[in-house]
Design goal:
This protein is mainly alpha-helical. The chain contains 2 helices and no strands.
Length: about 70
């Protein structure tokens, strides 16, 4: 992701008159969509980890038997 952003910024710096070309605008738009999806996925993983940790903590607190994971 960092490499894609660097390439985009370098292209902008090297070709300032071409930033209005549709191909470049589409490229930037696609990068924006990709980074947005990745950020959402990371947020989901963080939320999942927090929920899992909370559930495990409650299981220990309630002294529930540990259930084997199916994965």
């Amino acid at each position: 992701m960092a490499d894609l952003l660097t390439v985009t910024i370098n292209h902008l710096n090297d070709n300032p008159s071409q930033v209005h070309m549709q191909a470049y605008r589409d490229y930037v738009k696609a990068n924006c969509a990709l980074t947005s999806r990745i950020a959402e996925m990371i947020d989901d993983f963080v939320d999942y980890d927090e929920a899992k940790s909370k559930a495990e903590s409650l299981e220990r607190k309630l002294e529930l038997p540990v259930v084997a994971s199916s994965t």
